[in-house]
Fold these 4 entries.
Entry 1:
Amino acid sequence: MNVLAIPLLIPLFAGALSLALWRSTRWQRVIAVLATASLLVSSIVLLQAVLQDGYVVLHTAQWAAPFGITLVADLLAAIMVVLTGIIAFVIAIYSLAATPAGHEKFGYYPLLHLLLAGVVGSFITGDLFNLFVWFEVMLLASFALLTLGGERAQMEGAIKYVTLNLFSSAIFLMAVGLLYGMVGTLNMADLAQKIAQVEDQGMITVVAMLFLISFGIKAAAFPLFFWLPASYHTPQVAVSALFAGLLTKVGVYALFRVFTLIFVHDVAYTHTILLWIAALTMLTGVLGAAAQFEFRRILSFHIVSQIGYMLLGLALFTPLAIIGGVFYIMHHILVKTALFLVSGISYRLLGSYELRDLGGLYRKKPLLAILFLIPALSLAGIPPLSGFFAKFIVLRAGIEAEAYVVTGIALLVGLLTMYSMIKIWAEVFWKATPEHTHEQKPLTDAVVDRGHWPLYVPIMILGCGTLLIGFYGQPIFVLAEQAAAQLLNPQGYIDAVLGVQP
Amino acid sequence: MTALWILLLPALGMVVPLLTAKWGRNGCTLMTALAPLAALLVLLQATPSVFQAIPIVSTFEWVPILGLSVSFHLDGLGYLFGLLILGIGLLVILYARYYLSDRDNMGRFYAYLIFFMSAMLGVVLSNNVVQLWFFWELTSISSFLLISFWSHKSDARKGARMALTVTGAGGLALLAALLLMADVTGTYEVRELLQQGDVLRASDYYTVIVVLFLLGAFTKSAQFPFHFWLPHAMAAPTPVSAYLHSATMVKAGVFLMARFYPALSGTELWFVIVSLTGMITMLVGAYLALFKHDLKGLLAYSTISHLGLITLLLGLNTQLAAIAAVFHIINHAVFKASLFMAAGIIDHESGTRDMRKLNGLFKYMPYTATLAMVAAASMAGVPLMNGFLSKEMMFAETLTQETLGALSWWIPVLATLAGALGVAYSLRFMHDVFFNGEPIDLPRTPHEPPRFMRVPVEFLVVLCVFVGIIPQFMVGDLLAAASLAVLQHELPYYSLSLWHGFNLPLLMSVVAVIGGAVLYWHRRHLFHFYGQFADRDAKQIFEGAVQALQTAMVAVNHWLDNASLQRFMFLLVLLALILAASPLLHLHETVGTQPQLALNWVVGLAAMLLIVATLLTVWWSHRRLLALIALSVVGLIVSISFAYFSAPDLALTQLSVEVATIILFLLALFFLPQSSPVIDSPFKIIVRDLGVAALFGSVIGTLCYVMLTRPLTSISAFFLENSVPGGGGTNVVNVILVDFRGFDTLGEITVLGIAALGIYKLLARIPLYMPTTDSKGHRWSQDRHPVLLALVSQSLLPLALLVSAYIFLRGHNLPGGGFIAGLITAVALVQQYVAHGVDWMKGRIVFNYQAIIAAGLLIATMTGVGSMAFGREFLTTWFDYVSWPIVGKFEIASALIFDLGVYLTVVGATLLILANLGKLTTTERLRAGEG
């Protein structure tokens, strides 16, 4: 049996089922954990299948490509699905303790599943229009999740979020339409094959730029990222952690997909633009973070900055650089989710996300301090944590490609990231708890407060992930290398989808 | 394995203090010391091979593809540093046992200390540049943790942060340098790199490499102008200062220069930067040390000065200078560590480090005082002490320099001046603290420290003297081995002995000692001179710089992201415009070769209407109802054009969507003001936005035109051919929806379901009350449920449902299908809501819309999964024709079940939205509003 559709069907089915069990939050919780766990398992099965065969292809409704919609998993897609599984599972556990009852009543769990379905669908689809459909699933589900709770700040953030993302969708749709009008197909492998036959390659470049903008908005690249810091700090923390980990990476994934498979006709032009976008994304993100004093807003700006590193990998377009980009995505999803989850616990303990209201966690909650420190140092690129490798590979690729200015920026951004993490550390953990915070809710002496284990376990899992990648880097690197090799050899993908042409 | 064990033992020993902290202070100290002691023994056991220059290398693969391996090597230089790190480390552990108070968390302190020890050993033993850098960063982090050990103190936190920022920044520069070096030479192995000095020096990147490399080294070793962090690191507990910030960590920078000496030195560039920096640092450090009232402050600046001395020697480009540098590394570590420990004892026993209060302590602690004075004499470079020997070697080397041309004599003169300043501050340390009258209100009455607190100091001071008197015996082999590692080839002749006869260097020493004494004697004038300058505190400057950066960031950030959606959209469209338009500039042929249809009046009129309606929508955008009407015209024309170009299915769908949407809009508008507030944007902003929008629109228009006028071969023909034989339906659009691209439809109904949920949630908590008038004060009709409407709609309901069933069933072959049928049903039901009100409907239809959506999604998904049960791919359809009596031949298709799922989702979603919008108008809400 073809295992490719399973990771998509599980969240879809779980979403529908949770919806049917609208009144029973208890069952919805059970389904949430079970479904995400099986999503994780099925994603690992998929990864194994891909490792074995190179590509796993499913022609839905048995219509041969390019006529039906083909689902394709190459290594990158499979890796992304596994990461989705991991994040989904830890978020589901975290949600058990963190989700307010009001959110559960208004469909938190069904929306969570459907969002995951959108994410997985985006990763495994091999059809450009179908990608649009899953983007829409994701966009609407994330918008609905953003507004759960309905506070004023949330609505403000959500409106910016949805407006800018709808603009992205509109451009996406326009670009797909134009591309179909020129090439007459929607299957990505088929597009890759036929695009060289188009007479006016300049038109292809224009369409490529439209895709760059559309996906750039999704990925929160400069100067298209404003919706992200405007909205990610507003919803409840499990939601922002999920978004922080996964959503922008779908945009990055889409960029990786189209700019390695389809739009490689004029790399000197398209990827140079990508390079500068990457550099500016890194820089503005980290500088924006330096200006923030709210836990989640700082982290949000760092998402932007880290996206720059991933795009840098794509833009340099050398084997090593692509490996770096893929590696960076893997590392970042784990680490950033963990950091957001930590911010959620500190909020639980002290009732605020503002740095000035936080403090004293180093003495009272040493475990939490360690759980923050691991991903924070990883984010800053301190060895032997995963972030070090990610940065190291990208930097090395930059030097080898002789892109010194951009590499220098990447180094500088690393330092500023460090500075930001120290800022949080100093304010939230070192500093004594401010008086006014203390009056509300004194910290207990327990290492982990009663009922908080579901909040800690996910962070521990993610922390172990970054440590594992660090100490046991070789297999992960080999995985990234194989994924990159596939990306740089699109013919394999094309043959897998369309069958080997005579 | 030897090299690995030396590092591994302390690394494993890191947990020991944490585990044994409960065993009391002695137990904990003893256990903690075991691991470093074992490592020291391993190191000593390797002595013979190191002295015979037999390399000891152990390599393990880590990520071999990346050139990352775990590789250690032990050579003379590593051996020397290993000895310092482990030896002084052990002494510091013993010392800290007495220094720390009961309130301090001893286990944590020792754990950090051992952490640092391992990291530092990693730096000196690494044979892989990336690994070296990794340990380098770890030393910064452990130093950060140790400086901030008393994290409740603000200056400890700030000092730690400053140290980490400066050394961390340097670390990044170093990483860049190391990566460049590896890129140029093609190897990540330190040992191999050292052989490639010529390749590096010849490379185009040599300058960049050297500058970045030295940035790393200088920040770590507190060289001017990066020296400012070191004095602030003195907020750390004194054992930390003695260990990290004088004996070992700050030596990492000079270690690095020594390590890569064969690869990078030997050029004018190296000489100028390194020697000048060293010279300036030496002078500035010595000068500032003289004026510090804080005991540790004096020692910190003195450390800076001595680090400058070593740097200067490494920059002098003679082999003897490099040997002198190595020698001074040993000597400085020994006497400075003992001085710090002595200072710690004084602080510990008297309660202050302020030299304005500390006077005449000789009476109270003669023994400690003697030790401290011997060490200080060594620092001053007095004969019979080890400090004298290396300082004199330095003087000798400065005399041979010619780089400054006719002004080369500056070098020895300035060196002598620095020597004199060194003597002066050493004298101050001795005279001010131990003599010079009586102590001034000390917090505690000083006395001798516990016996074992003094042992480390005694040990080091004895070393000072012995090395000073019989150098060749004490350190001759060690120095030779280490120097060999630095120079990488046979050593030149040099003589280690106390007496070299009357020569110029000796004269310089004498001048320095006398000059220093004179300077100290007249210190009053000097202090007066120094006092004229405002005291610039590096911490304030640094924090100020950080604050300024912060402010600048806030400003830049605000400029970019002013939280205005308008600005965001502007930037977005602008970027889209620039990126999309620039490749178009190179496109010369706008019109393609595709033959174009003749323009007839129907098309022309429709196009005109479309344009006018669109413009009106924009023009009326502030008057919502009008805009809505214009918008519906747009929708209508689009529907008609679908029908005109023979796509009846699309036309039907578009039409029903239009209807549902307009009803939704109207319902929403009911609660909103009839006109949106006119945003009074400045005129130039309006022009700007209008311009960008028009340009972008024209780009898209051009694109469409270019695209449409070019010939196209598409996959569409396949659908026409295969619709009946493969999909079992003559309506190609429907077959595409439920079969060819059924997967899209599955996604789209999911979107619809989610949208409904989202809107439901948004409406659920809205505190809206039913308005009785519109925004202009016109009263709404009181006849809320007109009888006629109720009657008509009620009687129409069965008909509407019948139509929708018909549309649904025929969908596979004729225009229609689940989506359209769903919308028709929904609209028919909504009409009942409109006609009768929510209360009336509530009693009659008990629908759980969420359940309907869920059922629709489940049916659609399960139809797809069902095909997998038959061994087919996901979503594969099945159809067959059966002959029924009367009805005749009839088609059964699994696609119909899928379509049923679509139908249910559409009905559920539309009703969930509409009914909940309608619910806002119930009477209860009205009463609540009035009451």
Entry 2:
Amino acid sequence: MKLYELTISEASKGLQEKKFSSSELTSACLERIRAVEPKLHAFVTLTEEQALEQAQKADFLLGSGEVRPLLGIPISIKDNFCTSGIRTTASSNVLRNFVPPYDATVVRLITEAGAVSLGKTNMDAFAHGSSTETSDFGASRNPWNIERLPGGSSGGAAVSVAADEAIAAVGSETAGSIRQPAGWCGVVGLKPTYGRVSRYGLIAMASSLDSPGPITKSVEDAALMLEVLAGHDSMDATSSPLPTKPYRKLLKEKRENVTIGISDDYFEGVDPEIVTAVQKALREFERLGHTVKQIKLFDPQYAIAVYTIIQRSEVSSNLARYDGIRYGFGRDAFGEEAQRRIMLGTYSLSAGYYDAYYAKAQKVRTLIVEDFANAFEEVDVVIGPTSPSTALPVGSSKNHPMFGEVSDALLEPSSIAGLPGISICCGFSKELLPIGMQVIGPYFMEDLILNVANQYEQVTEWSNRKPDL
Amino acid sequence: MEFDIEHVAKLANLPLDEKHLEILGKQLTETLLYIDRLNEIPTEKVEPTSQVTGLTNVTRDDTVSASLPQEAAVENAPATHNGYIVVDAILEEER
């Protein structure tokens, strides 16, 4: 096994046991990046020098017996997290020269945990999309088939992990942006409860939805990353003061007799290969002693409309700050997708229309929140496909003004409600593309969905497969 | 579904030419038609949700703490003068 193929847990063990150094591990990742990056374009900015310096420092600390959760582990960071002294563009021309004077909280946290930062990953510009095709610096490619999209907006993040360029990645999700690319690239993507992970220093998309989270090679790694990332932050007023949990330790206490809810609407219009794969996974859960129960959730088709209004309204408000006066370039530098979203959001928030659109959407949001609350009276978790299709061909998002919203239909309801969700691989299509399955849980029950996902991962082999690059 | 696309562009402060106004106008109509389906759901007695985890009135202690140094705060601005950001004049002198 090559060093760059390791998970965080495996690499940490090797580092602790002095089988290899962080410098060796980091160099292996950098070499891998050099080899596959021309095909994949996962990164917008590489910070090779800084990575090697951080690795050296980590080796010194490891030598002195220091133990930290990510000590010496090479990680990629989505380019919408501010990194002090390192260009942060959100893959938009508006910010192509922006060098933040401070670190986002999640960047500070992984740095304090000892991580080595490899660089900043590509995304849809300002996270507007589910393909990375709206990136002003060109799309990323899916490592399982480079004629396919990786999904998005955390597309570069998912590619960096799936292609073993990084051991793990930090991404962000507004509605689908972690889970969908993780699903399309065959890796693990965890979207925590809204407010569980701080948004401070995250370039805002839709502030009432944005949730940073990890993309990893295993469920255990996702638990480990969440332990580092989660927690209250006085710099983000919407971050939750509730205590965090020992997520990795809780994985070991196998949750028994979990009641899994499934709703027919989440299987409607979904690629039959995906339906079959998820149904097989559900049989696996039954074999593990869990119960599958039919429930009826709010039709996800309405969630698309709610999400479109809320997200575009908040986008228009958040993107109003870009004027080229304090930093970045002016408003003529916005790409078409940003223009489209700003226009709809401006209209829906404008005098006379607020009640018909934004207020209406926020009311239906209440109904979606209540619907999930009722469901969780009956079941412990909800399981469904992550996306209606496997990775679509390059070019699919063009000329489709609602591409992202429609391809994330199954992820939007839980995002609107602010619930935690995890996507894991549950099989491969005939074209050898990964199939994603999501587990959704009640507020702040990340430990439960991680536990359920981990049980499945332990009895299946999907996560061991690697793309042929 | 009536709107004045030029007015929306003005509110949005986006410099758009005729061609783009037309394209965006069409797409705006398309999207509005799509989201119109929300009207199928009755919401007369429903309260809106803007914060999902139930936090209200979050304030911090009124204490002074370290902040960005002035040079760092303005280092990304394209034009500065004596630590200030230079902007175009927006007021005209009275004649």
Entry 3:
Amino acid sequence: MEHQIKRDTVAMNGDEAVAFAVKQCDVDVVAAYPITPQTIIVEKFSEYVANGEVQTQYVCTESEHSAMTACLAAAAAGARTFTASASAGLALMHEMLFVTSGSRVPVVMAVANRALSAPLNIHGDHSDAMAERDSGWIQIYVENAQEAYDSIIQAFKIAEDTTISIPLMVCLDGFTISHTLERVDILPDDLVKHYVGERGYPMVLTHEGKTVPFKLDPANPMTMGPNALQNYYFEFKRQQEEAMKHALKRIREINSEYAKISGRGYGNGLVDKYQLDDAEIAIVVLGSTAGTLKVIVDQLRQEGIKAGVLRIRSFRPFPVEDVIHALKDVKAVAVMDKSMSPGGLGAAVFSEVRNALYDSKQRPILVNYIFGLGGRDNSPRDLRKVYEDLLHIARTGQAEKAVNYLGLRE
Amino acid sequence: MTTQEWKFTAKDIAAKPDLFLSGHRACAGCAPVSVLRLVMKATRGPTIVTQATGCMEIVGSIYPYTSWALPWLHTAFENAAANASGIDAAIKIMRKKGKIKDEYVDVIAIAGDGGTLDIGLQALSGAVERGHDFLFVLYDNEGYMNTGIQRSSSTPIGASTTTSPAGSVIPGKLEKKKPITEIMLAHEMEYVATATPYYWKDLITKVRKGLEVEGPAFLHVFAPCPRGWRSDPAKSMEYSKLSVETCVFPIWEAVNGKRQLSTPSKVISLAPQKKKPVKAYLEGQGRFRHLFTPQNAHIIEEIQRSTDERWEKLLQKCASGAT
């Protein structure tokens, strides 16, 4: 199959790959505000608009709060919408992220992950997106520019699926992916356009008793964004959980469907396993770090050490069963977090994995490594040390500390 | 903007079905809710309404009920104009792509004074600068009434609210009301106007004019709130009338920056003896009760002085044709 796929290979950084994918998805409205390291996305897209290469209404808002609001409202009016943000910008959107997911409109956003102030830092870590863990958005973390491109195309399919209809953020590591030039294989415009298709709408019952598409339409008046009190609010929230369950299923299916047209897939869509089948030690991680870890695993395997990597691609919805299954035969596992939860037991991914494994009869010894905050570089040597620590833990059967810091001056 | 003035009769208005329906949960004597109904009487065709969080948003949208017979969106407090921006952008591109067949779809954003002068000012200024095609209606009841009568930047000097209470040392709010229409005029908008529901025909006409503008238009509607003003619910329309007669809230419109008084205020400009003292407006409102004491008499004098000064300035601006 793969040899039949018409493809072009281009050199792009992650931001450019995102902008290019958005261009191919025939997006109706882009409302955005610039912030490093996502700025290249909106700059590149502005060029497409200025050169008439897209049929998109581009709204340069005066803040990220208004950018997210305008996307929400445009999506409510029936448009396919996209925005991009990072760090402080995502934090400024915080209120509207909840309103967007609660309003059940499928906005797609690229987040070029960056540290949160203070102190001010423009470099990559996952503090921004992890702070939005409970915002009701689907969160997909990508490993490289190629996956950023592919995931944006998939994002519209997932978010706009009428059984889901919730917003989705594609998270790419700031600078490591957003600004690094890579080889990216792109699909033909018409193939992407056909694959993504026109936006569909869930059908809902109006006050007039008609079943109509869920959008603002003068022909079928609908009250969107109502005030729901103690008697109804809870049911609205519970429905969002149902949508996430559908998303868990559709992310897998769309990963397979997309592989058929592109020749590329990412694990089962939810998790990407590398050398895990017989692994005795493993690292669980999000994003670009997985790429470096795979190289280290290859070296360790040559040395006869059974090491593996579990990259979580879908952090929300969290693939509980896949994580349990992937780690059940591993002796010692390090979960690596590029964010912190001061005062908590480890950071977000660690908590999540530990939580998932609690009910598993067969589970590894689990430790947390917090690393790379504020763009702190972690060399292959640092990362190899984590595997060495795991070897020791696997042999002795105990971990000295649950939470560790990697590459930190202490 | 069309040069042909829109004409209508009271009969036309009465015959036109309401788009904001009865059964809502507004208080007795609520003038803002009358404003909503009047605004909807001015619509000319396919229309989408969006509202900021506030009294007028919650009273008509308590799930599973609605008072809105047209498409309506609420998202948050500070962003009614950003909602309008998104809706406008969607309509424009979807019409271009043939996904919307209507020749036009009007967009009306509605917010209170908090959602306009305070927390909503940034989104409003941004949306106007970008030139989105929408009418922004500010219903000004001079405070955060939905949360229990707190001070906003639209609360007038001397008024007692729960966060600017009249105490033994501080006699209510010390600061002046923010001049929002001057701020909007500085954006060089095609249409900016003021209105109040007692003069309902004037209000409806202005809404229609604002809708006919291709681009942003701004309407500042003064709307008494008997709960927040601690006034007789039966007298809300009387205070609406008195606000114009005392020149506390003159009504006018500015088309392309040329300001012109509307008839009720024009009458006072031509016959200054008809201008009533501010006392007539202040008395009876509980929020100003503490001013009617010997030690605070100077505040009433100050309100009279500043009202006169603003009125004189307005007359000069109307005469010179400047904004």
Entry 4:
Amino acid sequence: MNSPLPIVATPTRPALLGPAHVDFDLTNACNLFCSHCSVSSGKPMPAEAATAEILGIIHQLHELGVMSLTIAGGEPFIRPDIHEILETACSLPGWQVTVITNATFLTAEVVRRVADTCPGLAINVSVDGSTPVRFDYMRHGRRRTPQAQDELFGSVLTGLERTLTAGLDVEVNFTLSKANRDDLLPTYRLVRAMGARRLIAIKFLPAGRGFAQRAEMEFDFATWADYLVELTGLKAAGSIPGLSLSLPSAWEFYLPFKLASLDLAEAARVWRYSAPLEDSWFSGHAGIGDSSGVTDLNVVSNGDVYPITLMSGIPAARCGNMRESVLEDIWNDSQVLQDLRGMTLADLPRTCQTCELGRTCGGGSRARAWILSGRMDGPDAACPLLEAAGS
Amino acid sequence: MTAGRWMSFPSSSGGVIRVAAHGDGCEIRYGSRIAQGNADLLEIMALMDEATGPGAAQRSANLRGCAAAEVYRIATDTFARLRQAGFDFVLPDSLRAPHQAGRE
């Protein structure tokens, strides 16, 4: 087999005809009440889309050329029409469909039907703790009895086990915060022992309900830097196969190594990491390092559209509504999306423009900047260089 | 083909190729890869020459300004032949999972 084709950027190329990746939140309803939830799930939104509308949106997404669809919530399996939705999505050719779930609704019958009728479906199961108490800390508000904690944790692990036994394509999600970093590796070992091959540690970002947990959960830079360097040693030694990291921005990967005078290239090799702007294809489409509205989009359960899920709690980030416009028009005409796509380093704080990593990082996370500063072009205040500069 | 509308069709290997035309060329999504605009198409044509022999370059010279239907025909033919020649297409990490480290 030949190597993958190189992708050659051209300076004048137009925006994509449609998003490449979409997170579609089917409902805001959830049976859990996670303290870090970036979309503040719990009760359903007013006027959530009915089955026919959901299926219509999925067809629009497919017709617009979406290549990767992630179905999320809320808890998507709380919807009685979830099988019809997943089966429809999986029946359409040429894209990857993933569903994110807390696994508490994954009965043997549900898993069997998914396995039988949803070819190619990937399932991400959220497991944020290695014991009932540690899991409950993240997932249910810390006010429950030991028996309730045991039942919930057992329910999640049973659901996970069923997906693994059925041979589904499973990945475990772990929201990684300052408060639970010591439980990442125990959780990793637990799910690996169950047969899960992959766990992705998603670095906490203070969006939605998580904003109120910022002091407790958000990494300070020094703690994050030490932790990443420690994990990198394990990764380099081959001790944590199948464990990956999802970070909000590129400085969170590179800066810990740079400030400690460690080898950035070696760290990137160990983790097989490259920043979006290091990819000629991406840098041909975007002037900053954030994919929100450039390749990514989020549709929520009432049809509202946002550049990315982490921005769905920002009223000014709303791009339109699919009950009022077709997605193609929203994608092309939304001022929010046009502003994000047109943004360059020159629009961002001066520290980013002069930063040695600026052209690699591309200004950090726009979602975090918008949440913390109130402006889409504001400083990503979690970056220690911006903090030091007083931006 | 209607400009801006996606068309899906099977590749020779059982995958799905999706192509849309717009004013200045076309955008192609194959499996997990995107190519867009005439420049990318020309690059692909050049690789096609390498993979399947001369001929594609002549057609690519006629690509600029040609009708959407012709762009579509050339693109579909190109991708089918490239796939037959053993090329694989992968999604850039920047697109599939921005800022994800450690995926194996």
